[in-house]
Amino acid sequence: MTLPPGSIVRRPKRRKTMVVLETAGQVVLCGWIANGRFYKRRFPTDQLILCQSHSDLWPLT
Question: In whole angstroms, how large is the CA radius of gyration of the chain?
């Protein structure tokens, strides 16, 4: 599964949603805001569930 930058994802059994910042092979760099700070972390693509794709969030006009 390829996740384009800008997609909204989450991990299974977690409520926190994250935004895909960049994709490198089977690893995805995600970012989120918690406690007033911005966090970044890398996750394997098989650990992420797609909530909203980039095209649904930013439609082309």
Answer: 11
